[in-house]
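User: Before I run my own analysis I want an independent prediction to cross-check against. Here's the chain; please return only the structure tokens and, at the end, one sentence I can use as a sanity check.
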Amino acid sequence: MSEYQPQMTVHSAVELVVAVVDTAQAESVLRVYRENRALVSFECMARGTARTEMLDLLGLGETSKAIVMCLAGHQLAQHLLERLGYELKMRYPGRGIAFSVPVTGIGVRWHKLLTQAEQTEVLDMDRAEKKDGFDVVAVVMEQGYTNLVMDVARKAGARGGTVISARGIAEDEVKQFFGIEIQAEKEIVFLVVKSEEKQEIMTAIMKAVGMKTKSHGIVLSLPVSNAIGLAD
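Assistant: Structure tokens:
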């Protein structure tokens, strides 16, 4: 399989772990990720908009938040959630929330790096992949390449995207595996795409801004259960 052809999985061997915490707790989350050998993580700032009673219900006491994410194999993702619950006491109200989302597509080399320590079965989804509905394609890359991503994605069938700024942290193992230096300041582009067009869009983006380019991009996809407001 070409490195530009995204690896698709039925029972996802890679997951995106997401923690939403008070800004003061962001470094503690990153410490848990690092100590448990999560190889690549991202942090971005956010602001909660829920009403006070909803914040209390979700365990989110203030509106200034950090979203701290990492990519991990399935087994490590479950372990990270356990450690966050224990070490940061996120099992209790008021300590933030954390969850994991299955990654349904990712570059072959990233898939190999993130799952090399796990014996999780990976299946090719070329035939089994759903042909209707939508997926989210996420592109994490160096700053300054958003327009290139959007141009390439639109030519491959995407309609539009949303961009956020983030700080990326890559462990030495990632740098050695790819043989590159990875900058801290990142941009993340999210695109909601038709499932039948996902593979073509991801492949085009990988060729334009993948790890072998100056943008050092990671391209992955996440499942969408339902969506509204998207033009045909």
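Sanity check: The chain has a mean pLDDT of 82.
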